[in-house]
Design a protein that fits this description.
Rossmann fold; 6-stranded mixed sheet; binds pyridoxal-5'-phosphate
Length: about 425
């Protein structure tokens, strides 16, 4: 099989093989790497496969003739070493499922992408390299913890985490700062968008790139997005097997990485009917679909803080796939949910179904609850992006009970914090990572 080329969404950089796209994170013209075509996939060959095996088969076209091709098996094994079960929501009169993506080391779906990316980068490391590879990551809460866990103590690699001061939950902050060693945690006086801007500026700054070997681990890195297709494949095949119908997904959305993975899975031929994005009051995407005007803006703080994104970076990829708004509207729809409604939904679904949602998953549950009754006769899947114990400060008062903490999370909660405060300037970042 010939190798697949990855091109920039802005068209100003030459197409590169997958491993180069992963290594660079961002294309030199400031755009995002996209596969120039989707490699053909025999969907029938995927039925019944466990995640690591499914990943190996489904991603082989993307890795064909790349220098990482022979390592795809071991990369898939190390990224998919925990399950992504799809569970039926008991008590619901209609066919409703939760896709539980929170069984990894930091209890959120980002563990899949972070672990896959770290295995890819490790697979490319030259042992002769004199400078460590510095992974820059801006996080609105969950990314940083997942990336830190995935790279912690990996030889020849260093992680620099930037997160907005006061805008992540106490438990998230603990997971961002409990590492030390090859993990540098920076608490930025600003918003998530500031953190993301700083990372983008650093990656294209000529001086800094001379001094350091940079890569990025945000959802702009294609190495995080590709593995996220795998759980949509597995879940949609399972729903088709058990109900005979194509699944529809409601995806809690922020930077749209998870949404893009769902779109790719469907474009590759998986049995997926509708895809609805559930946003909090950061309404850039719902408004774009409504008006056709792309109007990014500063983010607003909400209960679903990992989705507080006013300028979702992966929209650039989605618009590259579906440049006409009319086409895009056929592919996805999007809704926005208020904080007060998130609270009500968490309480109501616990009373009705005994399910404990994190605030992000609750946005999806709310969008589901508002669907017309006829539409709910189809099988729907709530993409459950994080474990509620990560957001205990929000969920426990609503439910009036404590949430059991998964073992992996429990361990991290007792380590000492190591963090530096910086203003939101490139100069401060330059200094902090010198
Ligand atoms: C990151 C995150 C999201 C948003 O995912 P995107 O891929 O950025 O759209 C939703 N829920 C949780 C828990 C997250 O950590």
């Amino acid at each position: 099989m010939a190798s697949l080329a990855f091109a920039s969404t802005r068209g100003g950089a030459k197409p590169v093989p997958l491993s180069t796209a992963i290594q660079h994170g961002l294309a030199p013209d400031g755009g995002l790497y996209m596969p120039t075509v989707l490699p053909p996939l025999d969907v029938n060959s995927l039925a019944g496969l466990a995640l690591p095996h499914l990943a190996r088969v489904a991603l082989s076209g993307f890795f064909a003739a790349d220098r990482l091709q022979l390592q795809l098996g071991s990369i898939a094994d190390s990224a998919f070493n925990f399950p992504a079960p799809i569970t039926s929501v008991g008590g619901c009169p209609d066919p409703l499922f939760a896709l539980e993506l929170y069984h990894g080391p930091t209890a959120a779906f980002k563990d899949f992408g972070a672990r896959f990316l770290s295995a890819c980068l490790q697979g490319m490391e030259e042992f002769s390299a004199t400078k460590p590879l510095t992974i820059l990551v801006a996080t609105s809460g969950d990314t940083g913890g997942a990336v830190a866990a995935a790279f912690y103590r990996r030889l020849g690699m260093r992680v620099v985490i930037l997160y907005p001061k006061g805008l992540v939950s106490p438990r998230q902050e603990q997971q961002l700062t409990c590492w030390g060693e090859n993990v540098v945690s920076l608490r930025v006086a600003g918003t998530f968008d500031d953190c993301q801007r700083l990372v983008k500026e650093a990656l294209v700054d000529p001086d800094l790139s001379q001094q350091h070997r940079f890569s990025s681990a945000n959802s702009i890195n294609i190495g995080r997005l590709l593995p996220q297709m795998i759980y949509y494949m597995s879940a949609s095949l399972e729903v088709q097997r058990s109900t005979g119908l194509a699944a529809s997904f409601i995806v809690p959305a922020g930077n749209l990485g998870n949404a893009l993975a769902a779109l790719w899975a469907r474009a590759l031929g998986l049995p997926i009917r509708r895809i609805i994005l559930a946003h909090n009051v950061n309404r850039t995407v719902p408004e774009y679909l409504q008006t056709g005007v792309w109007h990014p803006r500063p983010s607003i703080g909400t209960l679903a803080s990992a989705m507080d994104v006013g300028n979702p970076s992966n929209m650039e990829r989605i618009r590259a796939m579906y440049p006409e708004i009319a086409l895009l509207r056929k592919q996805i729809s999007a809704s926005s949910v208020y904080d007060a409604t998130i609270r009500l939904r968490i309480r109501e679904d616990f009373m009705n179904y005994q399910r404990e949602w994190c605030p992000h998953t609750a946005t999806a549950a709310e969008v589901y609850a508002l669907l017309p009754a006829l539409e709910r006769q189809n099988p729907w899947v709530l993409v459950s992006t994080a474990h509620p114990a990560k957001f205990n400060d929000i969920v426990e008062p609503i439910l009036g009970k404590t949430i059991a903490v998964p073992e992996c999370l429990e361990r991290l909660l007792h380590l000492p914090q190591q963090v530096s405060d910086i203003p939101a300037t490139l100069q401060a970042l330059r200094h902090a990572i010198a």
